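Possible race condition, two jobs.
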Amino acid sequence: MSNVVVIDHPLVQHKLTLMRRKEASTAEFRQLLREIATLLAYEVTRDLPLETTKIETPLAKIDAPTLSSKKLCLISILRAGNGLLDGMLDLIPSARVGHVGLYRDPHTLEAVEYYCKLPLDIGERLAVVLDPMLATGHSAVAALDRIKDRGAQAIKFVCLVAAPEGIKTLQEAHPDVPIYAAAIDSHLNDHGYIVPGLGDAGDRLFGTK
């Protein structure tokens, strides 16, 4: 699949396996998601531009690499996206944060918006959109539609687990947006859940049903 990056680092894969287990507690799931998010952030930001800055170490003056002026915005698709957000902020604490609130209509499986708030200068920032599950792709497409409508130009989409159906839907609607995932699973079931997946990420993250 073009424009899809599967992050197969051993630590990511191990922690994802622990999260998939149905007996994993809410606390375990939450902590593992935060840890994986930090590892995903490392990969997603791998191509951030650098510039040199003159500094002085205890021994010498040097031109040292620092991040250039490229600004970041982490955008959580509520509510499960917040689980990835915390771990990424651990690594990138200066990033701005946006939120897009969507729920999936149980009959049509289409995304319905109830909240959207982004930085005013989103067009000047790299938008990293976060949602643990890319299932049907409808929520992701709807979120990206709204983010682009508000001026975002450079966008990356980050998830834990993706279904082929969701990838296809997202790529057809937004072929310019690269997808970063820890795993691509088999398929969706009749209820729109990823198989084998890990269940409803929001429910497992917050201990709800």
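Job #2 (started ~2 s after job #1):
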Amino acid sequence: MGTSELCLAIAGYHPETFDADSDVYDYWMFEGLRASNNRELHVTSTHCDDPAARALAGGSRNALTLHGCTAAQAGAPSTEPQAVVVGGLNETFKAHLMNRFRAAGFYVLDGSDNPALAGVHPDNIANRTLLGAGAQLELTTELRAAMFEVNTRAGRRKSTTGVFWAFVWAARDAIQLLEQQQ
């Protein structure tokens, strides 16, 4: 939950109004829209074979993917359950993301320390770019919950919090810094 709204905002679109920022990015989302049992629809990053997703990633220099995990899966300490794990094969992009998230006050874990969430497999959709490398974010349930006042499918898009926007701007800053260097 919450990754669709983040995807839209990081791409430059307000999740409630779909108004576009001056700098927008292409995006692709896989959403479970069932009333229940959406977990059955889960596709891992290495098994994402959607032709549109592959074409979009394959024609781009950079890709950033968003995923949800639990604090236990992330390896977050019990004192910091609101955490983000930054992975992927693009080490420069990872460093920019980690620096920006830390500067914004987020608890950041390096995916290199967590093989299950490292995002380093070449078949990972984040790494199917023109450069063969991208970045992957795994956000804990607690972090995503802190991003919305009303944490329902209908409520999230119009109840974003300061935590949500701080995360969005940190991610967008990292993307812009990466693109300035390329």
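The chain has a mean pLDDT of 93.
Logs attached separately.
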